[in-house]
Amino acid sequence: MFGLPWHILLPTLLGSLLAGALSSALGVFVIRMKLTSLGFAMSHAAFAGAALGILLGVADPIWMALVLALLAAAILGPLADASRMSVDTILAVVFPVTMALGLVFLNLAPSSGIGNGALSLLWGSLLGITMPHVLVLAAVAGVFVAVLLVFWKPFFALLLDRKLALASGLPVDGPFYALLFLVALVVATSLRVTGGLLIYSLMILPASAALQWVYDIKKALLLAPTFGIAASLGGAVLSLMVDLPMGAAITIVAAGIFLLSVVASPKRRRARAGAHPV
Amino acid sequence: MDDCVVSLRRVSASYEGERHAALHDVSLEVRAGEQVGVVGPNGAGKTTLLEVVSGLLPFVLGAVEVHGQPVSRRSHRLRARIGYVPQDAMFPSDTPFLVSDVVLAARFGLSSRLRWPTAGDRSAARSALVAIGISDLGGRPVGRLSGGQQRKVLLARALAQHASLLLLDEPTANLDPESKIEVAELVQAVRRDLGATALVVTHEDGALLRMADRVVRIVAGRLVADEALVGMS
Fold first, then answer.
1. Per-residue pLDDT band at A253 (split at 50, 70, 90)
2. According to the model, what pLDDT value does residue A59 have?
3. Is residue A64 classed exposed, middle or buried when 0-12, 13-18 and 19+ CB atoms within 10 A define those classes?
4. Which of B107, B113, B199 to mutate to test the interface with A (most CBs of A within 10 A)?
């Protein structure tokens, strides 16, 4: 299919499917808990980590991406939570610094290191996804689902309102930090699929699209991964068909789904009609 | 005092990063079953008082106890029995939650956080909606309700929690006159059903204040008056 052997195509499609489902499900949490800036900063920390991995000659730079993304979660979470500094300020500092570090690391890397590996970290790559990457993504998906099922009540209450969750006797700090670490895990392990520059689109666009359609958070948590899978698989196919960078192709498809959702959103139709939707 | 539900002794409190204390040296006791109105101008410290009692505000000097137990941000079990209606808990129109889920979530602190909601939880949430008179709104998105309906949802949460203490922060603010009376009467009904004690912040001379057993006045973070209103209601 597409002139590629199955041993290359299969990991690409499976990796896209898992990254799309995971990122977009997590995106619902990120949007509802107003963590978009933090997640954005973490995705660029992951990119800087992967670039450092290339500079250091690490066999798979994704592991360095994971280290830096987790480090960013450990630092940025308490920083933002303490509210001494606005999240926008944190982002304004962290985003250019991590991007600059990533580009410096890539620039310092020996010329042999700057090939497909480095470019795939920027743009995503069909050939960059292997079965070991798919297994890592599957393991992260397992962790995500397990954490969600075990701590469903605090997460559900946090999705509604952090203050109300705390006021009704639920701990909020633990689930909040667990979520940040999950974002770091997903961002770092999905880096191969979309690349560091566009990975965040797969987290935000399908989740935002899902929230255009439904008023029930449980349905949003099912619809978002559906859109995420459609965007990532659609992007992979588009990338194969017209030879586009995979991250860009996925983002274009995800943006299309989002725009369609905004235009066709039953919420907007009902708001215009002044009726209360059920 | 044995029947003391809320006890504050020489409490001062401030918000993080602010030099000036929002509450200064406040002492207050609320007995079981009492409804205490808290009045004062904007920014006087009324909301801070409720946040201190519920343990939501971490920067507190002095002693705060509810049901004889010290209160802190980690008092999760204690808070699970406190029905808190915050002043700013209006749900935006795009909030992706159904009313029934908003009420159900109020019960999540009552049992192990690892346990999924039980049939008992769902039944308690349904009963609360019926008691408040909004059972027909259970399947509606909470953000699409009017201000008065949203206040009723928050009261239904307190009822579903089987709260022994109600902390209500201006529950009738920004409502039309009819809704004000309706919500004030519901507060009384909820308090009666639960046999609960209540601290009700209001800066209006309305029905809620007339229903109080006592009124305390806070000005610039200090408790300046504590008056019984026996016979007014």
1. very high
2. 79
3. buried
4. B113
